[in-house]
Amino acid sequence: MKVECIFCKIINGEIPSKKIYEDENVLAFLDINPSSPGHTLVVPKRHILDFQEIDDDDLLNLMKICKNLSKKIVSVLDADGYSILQNNGIAQDVKHFHLHIIPKYSNDKTMDIDEVYKKITNE
Ligand code: 5GP
Ligand code: ZN
User: Fold this and answer.
1) How is 9-40 classified by DSSP, letter by letter?
2) Catalytic residues
3) Which residue of 24, 44, 45, 119 has the lowest C-beta tally within 10 Å?
4) Is residue 6 in contact with ligand 1, taking CB distance under 6 Å?
5) Which positions ≥6 away from 76 have C-beta within 8 Å?
6) What kind of fold does domain 6-121 have according to CATH?
């Protein structure tokens, strides 16, 4: 864990998050400042900087999980499309590799983060 990394703190439970998927190597949680309802971040639990640093096997595993989660998010929230985004260097605010899943809606959709969380997790 990198001491000052906010995502490492989320992963180890120091900072709360709305988790929608977790396994031994990967965590997915709702973005605190969503671009659209259901905006999700998929991160490796091991601290890795960016796209060029991540191991190929870890990247493939992360992409597979991201693909499955995108299906679930789009279906549960009835989205009309989605973007997969990954930022690096000056484009990257949090220096711990992450994939964004950003649902797209043909009509402006307002849903607060608790409602989104309930729908995705069935709680
Ligand atoms: P980046 O520009 O690094 O690709 O995006 C970082 C993302 O992390 C942003 O969309 C931002 O809203 C999100 N983020 C930053 N801090 C936190 C946090 O403490 N909790 C959650 N859930 N998301 C965060
Ligand atoms: Zn980290």
Assistant:
1) HHHTTSS---EEEE-SSEEEEE-SS-SSTT-E
2) 98
3) 24
4) yes
5) 119, 120
6) HIT family, subunit A (3.30.428)
Give the residue whose CA is nearest to atom 5 of ligand 1. Answer: 93
* pTM metric for this prediction: 0.97
Beta bridge partners of 102: 83
Read off the DSSP letter of residue 24.
S
Question: What pLDDT shows up at residue 123?
Answer: 67
The pLDDT value given to residue 25? 98
CA of 94 to the centre of ligand 2 (A): 8
Tokens of 73: 């998010």
Query: 31: Cβ below 6 Å to ligand 1?
Result: yes
| Tens digit of each residue's pLDDT (9 = 90 or more) over 25-34 | 999 999 999 9
pLDDT in tens, 56-79: 999 999 999 999 999 999 999 999
Task: List the shell of residues around ion ligand 2, using CB closer than 5 Å.
Answer: 2, 5, 7-8, 47, 96
Domain extents in the chain: 6-121
Q: Could you tell me if residue 78 is left (phi over 0), alpha (psi between -120 and 50 degrees) or otherwise beta?
A: left
